[in-house]
Amino acid sequence: MPHIDLKFITRNLTEAQQHAISDDLTDVLKKHFGSTDEAVSIRLNEIPKDDWKSEVYEPIIKAHLDELVKKPGYTMD
């Protein structure tokens, strides 16, 4: 039962764009985890640009760099 909490800088996505992203991510999870549509849950979490460092970069990215499968190509020091 995979769950994705996707954080990104606010893009004001339309409902159609949100559904397209969700469908694509669901397809990836189904392919690699053998999941079903019913087992997948996804949260699209828009973060204002001014809050990215304090809400995402510092506590989630920087604090867990050694655990990231894909590291960012930027720093916010």
UniProtKB/TrEMBL annotation:
Listed GO MF terms: intramolecular oxidoreductase activity, interconverting keto- and enol-groups
Any one of the GO CC terms: cytoplasm
Active site: P2
Domain 4-oxalocrotonate tautomerase-like: start-end pairs: 2-52
Keywords attached to this entry: Isomerase
InterPro entries: 4-OT-like_dom (IPR004370), Tautomerase/MIF_sf (IPR014347), Tautomerase_PptA (IPR017284)
Pfam families: Tautomerase (PF01361)
Membrane-spanning residues: none
Protein name (Swiss-Prot/TrEMBL): Tautomerase PptA
Annotated organism of origin: Rouxiella badensis
